[in-house]
Specification:
The complex is a heterodimer of chains A (about 210) and B (about 400). With about 210 residues, chain A is of the alpha/beta class. Chain A folds into two domains: about 5-130, Response regulator (Rossmann fold, 3-Layer(aba) Sandwich), CATH 3.40.50.2300; about 145-205, Winged helix-like DNA-binding domain superfamily/Winged helix DNA-binding domain (Arc Repressor Mutant, subunit A). Helices cover about 55% and strands about 10% of the residues of chain A. Chain A is built from nine helices and five strands. In chain A, helix 6 packs across helix 8 and helix 7 (about 160-170) packs across helix 8. Chain A is elongated, with a radius of gyration of 24 Å. Chain A starts with 6 loop residues before the first strand and ends with a helix. With about 400 residues, chain B is α+β, with helices and mostly antiparallel strands. In chain B, the strands form two sheets. In chain B, strands 2-4-5-7-6 form a five-stranded mixed beta sheet. In chain B, strands 1-3 form a two-stranded antiparallel sheet. In chain B, helix 4 (about 45-60) packs parallel to helix 6, helix 5 (about 60-80) runs antiparallel to helix 6 and helix 10 runs antiparallel to helix 12. The chains are: A alpha/beta (about 210), B alpha+beta (about 400). The interface of A and B includes residues 58 and 109 of A.
Amino acid sequence: MTDKEAIVYVIDDEALIREGIQSLIRSIGLRAVPFSSASEFLQAKRTDAPSCLVLDVRMPGQSGLDLQRQLNDAGIFIPIIFITGHADIPMTVRAMKDGALEFLTKPVRGQDLLDAVQKAVDRDRESRKERAELNAMRLRFDSLTPRESEVLKLVVAGLLNKQIADQLGTSELTVKTHRARVMEKTGADSLAHLVRMAERLRAALPK
Amino acid sequence: MHELQMNRFVPQRSNALLRYGAAPTFVIAALYLSFALRASFGNPAWFFFPAAVIAATWIGGKGPGGVAVVLSTLTVQYYFVPPIGSLGINRHDLPYFLIFVGCEALASWVISWRKDAEDAIRQARDQLELRVEERTTELKNANEALMVQMEEQRRTQEVLQMTRSELARVVRITTIGELTASIAHEVNQPLAAVVANADACVAWLYLKEPNLSEARAAAERAIQGATRASEVIARIRSLINKRPPERIPVQLNLLIEETSMLAASQAARNGVTISTVLDPNLPNVFGDRIQLQQVLFNLVTNAIEAMFSVIDRRRELKIRSQVQDSGQVVVSVQDTGIGVNAETMGRLFEPFFTTRAQGVGMGLPISRSIIEAHGGRLWADSILGQGTTFMFALQRAEAASA
């Protein structure tokens, strides 16, 4: 299952390796964008599309592991496939702890690399979709007025209209109107749907 | 010289009394003897008084000699020169008397001069002996100190040598380790490029509609990578070749023993017994220990492998070391293998010539070039069906260094 939009960034200081990997990726219909160093990659404009990073560990200047840290710190989430001439255990552990998807040793078997790339792109597509959904949801929830937000909080807590009206010191009718506006604005089909969305948002918030 | 005189005067001063006492003693003795023997010898005073002067001078030196001259002159004049019993003198006796006094004075002076000279010589000799003795002791001490120093230096040298060889070993191991890691990386990079591009090439060819231009570009990059890898290897090889071989004294017997130990398990696996016949007085040779060991190991491995197909007799490997009359050190490695025929014998040292399925054919040419670089010879003798002997000859260390 190929993806015409997906982009694979290939970072390796060795031109021949870079070009080989690039060619291999293009052969299965993905776009591959090469960089010869970490800083070159950081300076480049990245297209908003499902993507992953094929990253050499040992490079002059900034190493692959340093770039991974930097991306994490900057809140840029992109799956990373590391390739290295020789992998020791501490290096592998560090990379995996920091969220690397794969750790392959050179010379890399083509099929292994393509499988990893496919997996990484799929994962990125999913997480992008999830992030997009969350963002849209957050926008909808952000459009609520302060009063509507109060009503939402109490509805999600499981209170009845009458109880909400008592707490807020308004009439039951007013609460009903607010509640209908909340359902409409957030696009919830049912009370259960509304509760699920509110929970998801709250879970994603601290991050 | 100053010291010498000081030494000479000290004893004289201490017994001055004794020395000056000698003058009157001898004069009185002469007087007594002259009187005692006057009846039988006429007038012996002429003999005894000069004798007293000589004796006093001899014992007491110049001063007492003078005193003896004066005393004896006065005594002779008083007792023996007419008018006897007074210090007066007859006019006609005066010349004789003066001659007598002159002779006495002369005798005293000659004797004292002689004695002084003898004393001086004796003192000088004693002094010289003393000095010689002092010098000898000094020299002996200096010599002992030197021996101690030399011993210390020798021990320091030994420790230094040990440390140095240990250091060299560590450095060599570290260097080999580093070199290996570096070579591994240097070779692995282009190989990774080869694999990636070859994979890409295959992928482009396997498409429903193969993309030949992409496949070709990938194949060309694979070739580039492979070329780079071989260049890296060529570079490493030239690096190793350029390294000048060491020239240190090497004990071949030790090397043979190490090699046979190294090959022991391989020999045992193949039912080969290794025996060594080593000349205990084998002189050292100058050379590169590692390279020479490489040669030995290569010959031993060859010999073991030459006996793979032997089933009708014992598989024996004999390593021998000996000194020839010419002074050359010869090591031979003899097997009881199948032997080689004349045609094979002629090509034995050709590069890439091998009789084994998995052989590379570089062992013997490399071994020969190593031995020749050491100024020696490597050759083989073989009897078909009985075995082959490889031998190499090297100059002994003394001759090689001269």
